[in-house]
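In this notebook, the sequence line spells out the residues, with the fold written below as integer tokens. This is how one looks.
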Amino acid sequence: MNLWQGLEPSTLISLSILVPFIGAILVIITGKTPNLREAVTLTTAVILFTLVLAITDNTFNGVALELDMVELFPYLHIYFEVEPLGVLFALVASFLWIVTSIYAIGYMRGHNENNQTRFFCCFALAISSVMAICFSGNLLTLFIFYEVLTLSTYPLVTHAGTDAARQGGRVYLGILLSTSIAFLLLAILITFNITGTLDFRAGGIFDSSQDPLVLSALLVLFCYGIGKAAIMPFHRWLPAAMVAPTPVSALLHAVAVVKAGVFTVLKVAIYIFGLDTLKTLATTDVMLYIGATTVLLSSCIAMTKDNLKARLAYSTVSQLSYIVVGALLATSIASAGAALHIATHAVGKITLFFCAGAIMVASHKKNISEMVGLGRQMPLTMIAFAIGAISIIGLPPMAGTWSKWYLTLGALEADKLIIVAILMISSLLNIAYLLPLPIKAFFNPQKEQTTPWRWSETKEAPLPILIALSITTFGCLALFFYPQPLLELINLIPGVSTQLTGAG
């Protein structure tokens, strides 16, 4: 953090967006020398993380960071402002970019993937747009970079160049662009028309003079316009995007893209509507129960999938709606749980995707039914999978315990016992579709494997892959025993707290 101590606060914002963009250019320049290209990727990722740490330090110290870049229309600027929720998202995305870059090096080489320079370039461009989303100071800025993120990740989704990849890319692009243009852009225009501003403000920008019916309709437009949150029925893009290489699935579709969606939902709830206004709207409960239905239905669909990445994709659809539910419960502690779930789900789910990729590289297996006895061959990977699964389920001593705990407390505070029941049932479904794999891998050995296990049997994935999944596995444990820094950051979000207020 001392590295950037002398810089102006606005410069930190600029650099956090520009560094990955410059990294993308350098990746192209060094593309013919793979070792140098990957060194550039890792160096850029580390520099970005140190910048985000410096921004975090300023946030804890109460230093205002803002950057007004350009006026596009009267009263509408490209404007950036740092606030605690955005810092939380930036910390998660920038740290996991480092880990995923390590993983991608092992995966792309181990799998002999083509077009690796394009892959690392688009990855960096996507992270640049994520940083801009994190620090957007108004809805216009967020919308622009939300769309840039969609476009920059399309080449990653279609990376394989197969018919299935192109079809998956069409679904991905079609749903995300159509929902954002048809619903989100319309919601933004209506919001500006009735308030005269698109700035994010503590407590929201609407007041008592606004028609509750209009605000209720706006909430529906925002929820469905933010297609990256994958609320049913606009969720199919996420399973379709699983045709992408596993590093893409891991970071962009378990962290960056999907988290950009639920981050936007949470930011709109807190800074555009305000939790107090949200409680009064007729459609808040409607969207709340649609989110809760998404939690359950996608969990049930996940149980039917034999393909491991498909199962994890529907699991992600379910887990994203935990955050949507937390936002729409409109209580302080539920919002805190939703914010924390951005981090805890990220480390748990990225671990599971890392393991799926490791299995594909080392054993060339994609279907769960083929993985019986795999624990003898890949013990480290399957132990990591078990730990990531327990975190997603929300059992101690793993990170997911805390976010689910706060979400449950928030549902109780809002007197929504049916939501409490749905959260509990969903966790049982998590057990049903996640734990069978490590159980079969370790406790249902294939019939011909009757001899005692030996280290010589192991055939793990390349070392960079094992290093990356070991880091995220440790993160699942570390965030259980030491969640305080994230909780302190969340407590800085206006109107959000990890303490019960007694309202209900």
Remarks:
- The first strand starts at residue 66 and ends at 73.
- The first helix runs from residue 9 to 29.
